[in-house]
Design a protein that fits this description.
The chain is an alpha/beta fold. It has a single domain, classed as Metal-dependent hydrolases (TIM Barrel). Helices cover 42% and strands 14% of the residues. Strand 7 (193-196), helix 9 (207-225) and strand 8 (231-232) form a beta-alpha-beta unit. The structure holds zinc ion (ZN). Zinc ion binds at residues 8, 10, 50, 199, 236.
Length: 273
């Protein structure tokens, strides 16, 4: 039986969670019980849990993410969200040190925060991530709110960082949507750059056509990179339902062995799960 890893999920169980509107739209309760139950139903053996944004824009504090992961009994592992200030970077590294082997990655919210990927404020984070071989996830592409900064969330911003830090494992969230070709080039060019397929499906008019377009874009990126080794499955729960993201993988025109890499093998290797 195919095992699956979800490398991108959110949860807070708070009423001021800014993703509650996506949960409502998708008919989700957006609770730990629901998330774990759904994971079991779809044979998703592990998940990485990321802070959702709260109303007002700040992310859920990282210690709350760790608490939810502890409550999950090992099914969820925390990703530490790092905001662009010396104080927050220091606190994030400290928290990761205190929770070694528990914390699986860091996340930088490009497009939502007033800093670029190459801002010196993140140097200390990147040094630590490189030395501990912890991947750094970057939000790339479209932002969930109309006030997002696309110039900073464009995936090509990560080329400069990957050039400067060849040992840093970089994961581009949401495949840089809609800049799939730019991401295809980045995962082809850089040995340590990956992309996840989370949060791409949003419903609405032309939902069927759009799902077909997405599957074509991702399949073509695999052809361009001549490999599926750099593509990672994630849902972005509650933004996208598990059933929809799994349906997207089924639609990809790639070998079954490559689907297995996307659903499980790549994440297992990259995050050391
Ligand atoms: Zn997300």
């Amino acid at each position: 039986m195919q095992e699956i890893i979800d490398a991108h999920a959110h949860l807070s169980e708070r009423s001021d969670d800014a993703l509650n509107r996506f949960a409502r739209k998708n008919g989700l309760r957006y609770t730990l019980d629901e998330l774990l139950g759904t994971m079991r139903r779809y044979k998703i053996v592990r998940g990485l849990l990321l802070s959702p944004p709260l109303q007002g824009g700040a992310p859920l504090p990282n210690d709350k993410v760790i608490k939810l992961c502890i409550r999950s009994g090992g099914m969820l592992a925390p990703v530490i969200t790092v905001e662009p200030s010396a104080k927050e970077v220091k606190a994030a590294v400290k928290l990761a040190e205190e929770n070694r082997r528990v914390v699986k990655a860091f996340k930088v919210r490009l497009g939502y925060v007033k800093a670029s990927a190459t801002s010196p404020v993140f140097d200390r984070l990147y040094d630590y991530a490189e030395s501990e071989r912890l991947p750094v996830l970057f939000h790339t592409g479209d932002t969930a709110f109309s006030t997002g900064d696309l110039a900073r969330s464009h995936p090509l911003n990560l080329d400069g960082l990957a050039n400067k830090r060849e040992e840093l494992t970089i994961i581009l969230c949401h495949f840089g949507n809609p800049w799939f070709e730019d991401v295809a080039e980045l995962i082809y060019k850089h040995p340590n750059v990956y992309a996840d397929i989370s949060g791409l499906i949003t419903g609405g008019a032309y939902a069927e056509k759009y799902a077909g377009w997405l599957a074509k874009k991702i399949s073509e990126a695999v052809y361009f990179a001549a490999s599926a080794d750099k593509v990672i499955f994630g849902t972005d729960y509650p933004v996208t339902k598990h059933s929809e993201t799994l349906a997207l993988v089924r639609k990809l025109e790639v070998d079954e062995r490559d689907k297995e890499k996307i659903l499980w093998r790549n994440a297992n290797r990259v995050f050391g799960l």
